[in-house]
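Hi U.,

Before I forget, here's the chain from the pilot set. I'm dumping it here mostly so it's searchable later in email.
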Amino acid sequence: MTDHLYAQRRAKERGGHYMHCPKCGSGKISLGLVNDLLRAVDMNGEIFEAKFQVPVWCCSACKLRWQGQEAQAAKEATYQHALAQRTPGRIAA
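Structure:
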């Protein structure tokens, strides 16, 4: 399942937490993906970068864009994956 579809399903399972815009209250919202870049430090103190996609909610009525819990989960998953690729042993999450 893609991150986009997973985020939509999770929002619906949570009782529609993001089913209305927090600014204008409109129900005309959608979930999209935006490219982002994570900058972090590995276990050896070396700086690294990892590209990832962030789920972003958008209101078509007032054009507000915001991130929810899905964005933090995507960032954390990217960080853990990048660390695992950089170290000889796997890092337990």
